[in-house]
Amino acid sequence: MNRNCNIYLDIDGVLLKKDGQIPNFADEFISYITKNFNCYWLTTHCRGDENKAIQYLSKYYSAIMIEKLKAIQPTFWNDLKTEAIEFESDFFWIDDSSFEAEKRILTKSGKSVCLLTVDLNNSKELKEIIEQLGKYLMQTF
Asked: Which positions ≥6 away from 5 have C-beta within 8 Å?
């Protein structure tokens, strides 16, 4: 487990397709990130004390996956998701869409490569992200 690297995770467009379907490789993706990284929600379904992420996802995912998702910690942010990111740590932000203002903050901080933009129109997208994260883990050892 690499607790020196954080994963910031969106739900809509990452763990769920726009039509509410679970994307291909979602179970493998969830298992991989919760086992290997320190994971945080970075979604409108979880903002500080109001964490409805698990309740929301329980309509779609199996009980086994929900137990794994419970390991993901809440974040606190108001306007921009970048408010919740610990920039002094290694991290990946996995989202399907980010604001230009957030991208500028990442660029200004030299962290633009940390944003992994998901496109679930690619049926192997989550598998490819697992592979990308695996390459990162191989480099850190």
From this structure: 37, 38, 89, 90, 91, 92, 136, 140
Range of the domain at 132: 2-139
CATH of the domain at 69: 3.40.50.1000
Q: 89-98 pLDDT, tens per residue?
A: 999 999 999 9
In the chain, the number of structural domains is: 1
d(CA 138, CA 111): 20
What pairing do the DSSP bridges indicate for beta strands 37-41 and 2-9?
A: parallel
pLDDT tens-digit profile of 2-16? Answer: 458 999 999 999 999
Query: 5: closest CA among 37, 40, 41?
Result: 37
